[in-house]
Specification:
It is built from eight helices and five strands; from the N terminus they run αβααβαβαβααβα. The protein has about 230 residues and is mostly helical. The protein has one domain: Creatininase (Rossmann fold, 3-Layer(aba) Sandwich), CATH 3.40.50. It is globular and about 55 Å long. The two termini are about 25 Å apart.
Length: about 230
């Protein structure tokens, strides 16, 4: 049940029998030849595909996150950590105040991970609240499926290239890009990062066959759904 396709009457009726929901977290940042909204597209779709059979509401993906290292790529938007922490806390407070108690955060951007303590603090301050923070692509079964296809997989490479993150008429390079030197990335400013990684792919092929991607996707959906259905006690 997507919030964007629901009225408040629908949600009020739902909350009489269930208090679960999903909050996707995304980002607006460079993804080489893919959409700047890759992380938001993927987090909201994986959440929706996982929740639909259960009738659990899925809120719109938060489209901005923490990505200061990509600010030399036009179109990227980054929030300050303090701003983002307050934003996530305000959203969680709103969910709680309107009746939700169990919140699964489906995160689509690794840079957003520093806000996980906000979830712990929120639970401590709200009786009965539960919050799970789920990096969908890093979940054990999903990551194992990625590695089984090709262990050279990274940001903006084939592992984020799905039919729904591609840009029409925008072909991707046919070769496998070597991994960038991650040690050199750690002490670079945004322009230094761009100089080092070039088009934005950290390393790996740019695209894999759709049947392999669909296999990974179905594993990720099932792994996400299991968190919704699992023991919240």
């Amino acid at each position: 049940m997507k919030i964007s396709e629901s009225s408040w009457f629908d949600i009020e009726a739902y909350l009489k029998t269930d208090d679960r929901c999903i909050l996707p977290l995304g980002s607006t940042e460079q993804h080489a030849h893919l959409s700047l909204s890759v992380d938001s597209i993927l987090s909201e779709k994986i959440a929706t595909d996982a929740a639909t059979p259960l009738g659990v509401p899925v809120f719109p993906a938060v489209p901005y996150g923490l990505t200061p290292y990509f600010m030399a790529f036009p179109g990227t938007v980054s929030l300050k950590l303090s701003t983002y922490a307050l934003l996530v806390r305000d959203i969680l407070d709103s969910l709680y105040n309107t009746g939700f108690r169990r919140v699964l955060i489906v995160n689509g951007h690794g840079g957003n991970s520093p806000v996980q303590p906000v979830c712990a603090e929120w639970m401590q301050a709200r009786p009965g609240a539960r919050c799970r923070f789920h990096d969908w692509w890093r979940a054990p079964r999903t990551w194992a499926a990625v590695q089984a296809v090709d262990p050279v997989a990274s940001h903006a490479s084939w592992m984020e290239n799905f039919p729904w993150t591609r840009l029409e008429g925008r072909p991707v390079p046919p070769e496998q890009k070597p991994y960038v030197d991650f040690d050199r990335l750690r002490d670079r400013d945004a322009q230094g990062v761009r100089d080092l990684i070039g088009d934005g792919n950290y390393g790996g092929h740019y695209q894999k066959p759709d049947d392999q991607m669909e296999g990974i996707w179905q594993i990720a959906v099932a792994e996400t759904r299991a968190l919704l259905e699992g023991d919240w006690a």
